[in-house]
Write a structure and sequence with these properties.
35% of the residues lie in helices and 18% in strands. The protein has 625 residues and is an alpha+beta fold. Among the domains are: 122 residues, Elongation Factor Tu (Ef-tu), domain 3 (Beta Barrel); 97 residues, Orthogonal Bundle (Arc Repressor Mutant, subunit A), CATH 1.10.10; 52 residues, GidA associated domain, C-terminal subdomain (DNA polymerase, domain 1), CATH 1.10.150.570. β1, α1 and β2 form a beta-alpha-beta unit.
Amino acid sequence: MNDEIYDIIVVGAGHAGSEAAAAAANLGSRVLLITMDMTKIAQMSCNPAMGGIAKGQIIREIDAMGGYSGIVTDQTMIQFRMLNKSKGPAMWSPRAQCDRMQFSIKWREMLEKTKNLEFWQDMVTELIIEKNNIKGVITRMGEKILSKAVILTNGTFLNGLMHIGRKQIHGGRAGEPYAYGLSEQLKKYDFEVGRMKTGTPARLDGRSINFTKMTEQKGDNEGKKFSFLDYDVDYSKHKSCWIIYTNKEVHRILEKGFKDSPLYTGIIKSIGPRYCPSIEDKIVTFAEKEQHMLFIEPEGLNTEEYYINGFSSSLPLTIQKEALRKIKGLEKVKIYRPGYAIEYDYFPPTQLNHTLETKKIKNLYFAGQINGTTGYEEAAAQGMIAGINAHLKLKKGTEFILSRDQAYIGVLIDDLVTKGVDEPYRMFTSRAEYRIILRQDDADERLTELSHSIGLAKKERLKLVHEKARYRKRIIMELSRKSIEPGKINDKLKKLNTSTLKQKVKSIDLIARPQIRIDDIYTEFDDLNEYIIKMGRRREEILESAEINIKYKGYIEREKKMAEKLKRLENIKIDEKIDYNKIMSISTEGRQKLKKIKPLTIGQASRISGVSPADISVLLVYMGR
């Protein structure tokens, strides 16, 4: 490397690092992305899928702001499903199976086409820090590379240790080395460092699987996708997933291996993800259950490798094999590699500001699993926000923070820096108090204009948002003024199991019924039919948006008012120099938590675990409010 100074160095090219590098470079910063292996960019280390409950909303938010995750998912997906369709739209969550190898290849292709972005294959072992200011990095090869900001996105690589039974292997992922040096250095700067655990299941040889004994799970194939950009997705080659179950015999065999399980022998002391437990944890925690559902998921279009979702394990290889072969359809299964658990270092995220800049070292940012999260989607979101903020601080001296009523990304980051984590953090719809206005269908309307204002989302995206709003407004207006006769619609209403009409009514009143869709009505009006045809391939997206706005208008308006009311607390700033030790009327735990986290607003202070409503009242009085 030469003596030039980069604006930003991103360490690690997983989902967080890739989105961080893309965002900062697209905004105009000169970025260097350092990774230990250029062939593993945005590698899907665990299951070959993107999205899911609440996670799908996050990917749509990333896309709405101009990130790459949604586009790459669309271009490499081999199955799409909209989860929770039987519930209200606040719960609808898109999920896609992807071709694991093509996903990484496509990500690399997009990053290599990104202006202002350079690459270096190496391991970062040390940060260059002067007077608590970041100045660059030093690599294993001895390269000293200077920069104005650094974003650490090390995933599970920091002092990574893999477990298979009693065997321990140093590594950040199967077949890859672990990263060292950074945790030890940051401890000297008084950073708190913890250990977490995650796991992954065995990979199966599809040629040895009897799919005829399994339940097929096909995709939706409804023309859905993740990106709000206007393009088609080819569903013709999509593959099915398959559902299977464990049984008593499987559980008996697994229990036989507990004596060698690192989870139960005390070898692993760190905490694993509660919502993605190992198969060992499942049969212990849910001892009364005689079976557990598992999913056989394809790893790609042109491979026979399959992922067995729900069977993460760190048991000895012989036990994993024996147990798998007692499951229907897997009697003769062969595996490509065993499941394993991995322990790694993380930094409790209460050490960060909402921009994801560390409080102790200026211009140093953390994003992804280094902050105690789990999941590609949570990592990618943090990477994007860190990349945006590193750029804005360097170039404009400003910051970009999403609030809890603006995005799931805002909920995620506020939870991390305000509440911290005591187990790997995973996003759920239940974590968002404003989920009715944080739907997957309206992420573009919430975030694209905001992102465009800072220079990230392109004009093309803004044009599509405005077009969607214009089409929707016209559709709702037309349905509001057009009446429909009983004779024209009653036969259809009978088929849809909803009550018939006795007199003509406004079309919009029919759409408000849960059984009726706009598709069931608009063809009755020639001018509206012609208008909707003009929408082209965006037709379904726009009609869905109009329908949600009609059916849930009251709920949406009520939640917006609630968000506005509570936002007043977010506008009450707290002086950074406030001395909580002097406010003796605040509880001891409250003072300790407030001193540690140093909330910026009363709203943030009210969400800190251990700070009571009474403590907030005292704080407001102290501040003269």
